[in-house]
Predict the 3D structure of the following.
Amino acid sequence: MIGLATVMLMCFKGRVAGISGVIGSLMQVRNAPPGHFSWRIAFILGLVLSSAIYGLFAVVPASQIDASYGLIVLAGLLVGFGTRMGSGCTSGHAVCGLSRLSVRSIAATFSFMASGFVTAYIVFHVLGVA
Amino acid sequence: MQTFLVFLSGLVFGIGLIISGMSNPAKVINFLDIAGTWDPSLAFVMLGAIPVAFVGFRFIEKQGQTAFNEPLHLPGTKSVNRSLVVGGFVFGAGWAIAGFCPGPALVAMGAGYGKALLFVVAMIGGMLVHDHVYKRMIKEPQLA
């Protein structure tokens, strides 16, 4: 379904479904060309409303968020900064980019996967955050 | 109509994230934490999405335009540079700490989780810091 969604966006709007890129572009309000916002807002709205719409047909599986409020803020800042600096996140690089055999995306995916595995080890086993 | 179809793309994406378990940070962390109770199933989510997207993108790129006869906007940059790799490292660290990447955070925010909302606000903060503070800093001439 994730693969299908990326193909849908490419088919209907000709855009790569990179979620961090879409959010980041929404923040660029100065000198925005016409049509800059509408499709991005529509796409984000689809994501945000997906739980509610899924919930009409089935029980939405719970999201278990163990990190403390402080760690959530730290993680959010890192994710926001890192996805802008690295030009993409899981959707843009690992799904769309790998599917398009982009060398940049292969490098980026290796980078954040490796970092994710190492960070998880450090946080949960070396620092012992529960 | 086109905007509605784009909305639908986001919706299908979100439902895919819910079904696959990506919107559950505990499951994501179980995937990233090899030394814990490792659950590799999310790797199959990615491996499942790529062939679908691969075939779909090939087809659309051959058409050369969207279903609405508009040009495709494909990322054209080819070079692997330092900020790509360093940015990936920073992102991966944040991803492992909270178990959220941008898409699932939006989905969980929509489900009403306060921590997901806080994450999204912080994430936008991090983006703004990059675009407005960091980028300006690296453009400044180096102080000798």
